Amino acid sequence: MSKTLFDKVWDSHVVHKIKDGPDVLFIDRHMVHEVTSPVAFLGLKNRGLKVLFPEKTFATADHNTPTINQHLPVKDLLSANQLKALEKNSKEHGISYWGLGHEKNGIVHVVGPEYGITQPGATIVCGDSHTSTHGAFGAIAFGIGTSEVEMVLSTQCIMQPKPKKMRINIEGTLNSGVTPKDVALFIISKLTTSGATGYFIEYSGSVFSEMSMEGRMTVCNLSIEMGARGGMIAPDDKTFDYIKGREFTPKNGSWEKAMKYWSNLKTDKNAVFDKEINFDGNKIHPMITFGTNPGMGINISKEIPYADNQNDGIETFKKSLKYMDFSEGESMLGKNIDFVFLGSCTNGRIEDFREFTRIVKGKKKAPNVTAWLVPGSHKVEKAIKEEGLLKILNEAGFELREPGCSACLAMNDDKIPAGKYAVSTSNRNFEGRQGPGSRTLLASPLVAAAAAITGKITDPRTLQ
Rounded to an integer, what distance in angstroms lies between the CA atom of residue 291 and that of residue 279? Predict the structure, then answer.
């Protein structure tokens, strides 16, 4: 029987099928952070349980961490307590812990791939919705809630209904200035934020096969923003080259054995999906959002749509524009902005900093712009310095902060003030997501760089 990539990975991890109910799924890798784990560990303590397989669980501090002066005590009491709890719980249960100051510390979905924890054909969960990032390696990865974190810690299994399967195929050659972030925002603008609800997506076609692993991670990261349970891309030579030799990947004979399995992780020719969607890569342009959900995105050179042209949710559409203080039919180009944020688990990798630096090289940051450049990990931070990117950024008037989730969700000190506009490379633009009253415009590192230099929404192709 022909199977999809998703079927092959899912079915091989089913421990038990509950009649008319969910599957009991074995989890290969469990990643935890300081926000969604304390209550889960407390649940274990109250029940007198230990973590079943501590070697399969990895802990890092990222959500509540400051991005400056990390060597000093954390000022926020709640954040400090959560960080202490994660360190204490990890030590008690024998879990690898990468806290502030640790050389491996960084955003959970950045450090996982960096150290080879993320592998093809694996099942990966974390108490964070953007766990789907790891699907770029041909893994089934999805976010879970706190009670489920406790379930995985104690049993290494989780109960999940099997999602439906969707394939999104994009062929063609991307235009100049179009990045994986633009591809993802384009898809979401077409599907809406609920268009993939109930599905697990496989991305296929030349556009994805030609992407770097960093780019694939960006696309899979944003699967959640179209309502999907997760997204994945079949592993290929790029995947294997990326993970080979990393700390937690198989070595020597174990590598050869793993490769035999990984090489078969692709959708069979006659496999059937519940839904298939095709797009033309040539029709994708640099994107930017104008509203308060990731589906409200447009070609950066186009005008904001009219409410009457929306199929549904007209009142919500109007409410969103009112919050953003935008009007129907307006051009996004030339709109003044106040902040630029480069970072997050969506665009906080070295490739993103290379792209940003390519635009700002030899130019100067606009005086009206506050820019937060936050690497996704210490490994990324180190590469920025070693590749000479930091020197270029400093000469252009930018400073580099320390690793963390930063302004993506404003659970730390990096908050956009009320009424201010931020061009952000993160994943969500909900009302107040980056701070109470803040206004977020989601975009690629190239669009963010162009805005940082000009102080307004600018097509990056005009600066290349």
Answer: 23
Q: Which long-range contacts (CB under 8 A, 24 or more apart) does 406-409 make?
A: 406/67, 406/341, 406/343, 406/344, 406/372, 406/374, 407/339, 407/341, 407/343, 407/372, 407/374, 407/434, 407/435, 408/341, 408/343, 408/344, 408/345, 408/346, 408/434, 409/63, 409/433, 409/434
Domains 164-227+270-283 and 289-462 share a fold: no
Confidence (pLDDT) at 278: 98
The full length of the chain comes to 464
Instruction: Classify domain 289-462 at the CATH superfamily level.
Output: Aconitase, domain 3 (3.30.499.10)
Fold of 164-227+270-283: Aconitase; Domain 2 (3.40.1060)
Rounded Cα–Cα distance for residues 449 and 201 (Å):
30
pLDDT at 380: 98
Give the whole-angstrom CA distance, residue 160 versus residue 13: 12
Other CB atoms within a 10 A radius of the CB of residue 33 amount to 24
Mean pLDDT of 38-43: 97
